[in-house]
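S2.1 Query sequence (ABC transporter permease subunit)
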Amino acid sequence: MLNLSGWRNFLYVLPAVLVYAVFLLFPLLASLGISFTEWDGTSLPVFSGVSNYLRMFSDPVFWIALGNNAILMLFYTLLPIGVGLLLCSFLYDTRNNSERSVLRILFFLPYIMPMAVLGVVWRWLYNPAFGPIDQILRAIGLPQLALSWLGDFTWALPAVGLVATWYFFGFCLVLFMAGLQRMDPSLLEAADLDGSSRRQKFMRITLPG
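Output structure tokens follow.
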């Protein structure tokens, strides 16, 4: 009976395992194997050892691309987590439950919107001719800061990364607020009685929790 139950459980997860193996694991392993060959896509692949990797590491474009990816990873991971954590702590300290609920929905809203819609909106915001960002800069007397954000070699990458941070930090905020709601309120009350500052409460209670 125990063996039958084990086989039944295995059959339950088998479809997911097959999908993972066919569409993720097999292409990954196949790509790894092809990387050690010379192959034009039509003839038979010829084993070439690590020559492809040596050529890749000696290509300066590879290191530029790697640096750009590292910058984007900063905007996609560390900044959303940091902004979400700090904003969550601020809202938890300064807003009541109803206000936090409304703000949480507003901040999370971009995460559930279609990416195509967000792309159109941010392309309009960054438009150098009629986008509101450049129009505001010109209106306040800073026309030298009005740029073609997505066409500038210096600012294109941060401009795209900023959109990613704006998109993901709401998701991080919701996760952190869910964690704070499970925190024992008596810890913060005791810290208030001891005269702890917001920074001290954040570093010693909120962040470890």
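The chain has nine helices and two strands. The chain has a mean pLDDT of 86.
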